[in-house]
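pinning this so it doesn't scroll away 📌
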Amino acid sequence: MPTREERDTEGRFAERYRVAQTDVTRGIERVVIGGDWGANGYTTVAQADALAHLLRLRTGMRLLDLGAGRGWPGLYLAGSTGCDVVLSDVPVEGLRAAGTRARHERLSDRSAAVVASARHLFCRARAFDAIVHTDVLC
């Protein structure tokens, strides 16, 4: 059962995900992050590429992105490396946006979204080859 603090945090993030992106916010994201992913964090494309390299992500691997929000960088990593990705977060609004992005990027067959807190993981040990959690508030 979520704590009051977790429920409050979920509510704040859900509200943020309900705010539509604008041309201005997309432009800022392109300058700051290097891409247009609807991100709520500050991980750059270069940093995501470094994660892919360090984790040796490739086709056939399973990646878990904790606190995935709208799918950045999990979907990007799946698209750039060929790995499969499971996006996990609590606010369903962000994961809905991630699902839309996955369809747009033609990654639906290699991605899934799970509403779950990192505090209460839904999977068994060693179910994934790699885990990322960028810009996550813990």
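📌 and the second one:
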Amino acid sequence: MAFTKKNEEAVSPVIGVILMVAITVILAAVIAAFVFGMAGNIQKTKVVAATESRVNTSSVVVTYQGGQDAGSLTEISFQVNGANATITAPGSLVTVTDNSVHTIHAGDALPVGTSIYVDASAPGKDHVVGIGTFNDGSTQVIIDNTL
């Protein structure tokens, strides 16, 4: 009976060293990208909020809740199912049209706690999006919900 010794090493030492060097180089490149600013400017997220709920089969109410950056919010516009929502007055029924946008200015027409009724006549399928514009020119989705 002859016994032979089998090589049971999973990875050779040379391959192990190559893998360790590759990991070190990748880690150094990622750290250098952040240290030297090569990652670019990452825009800070604004903190404002709104809530929405269905009040009946034909309307959704959107309530502006304010937030840390409420003072820098200059306007809010709404879309329902991808179409621009025309706001006629705060708290009134919003009708959806494809060719016009009416924004609500937060300074006088949309104080914190104001509710706006949006015409949304497809319960469970209406996609309502509120987009805020801030005084630094940036925009951000404030609410995005399907009711």
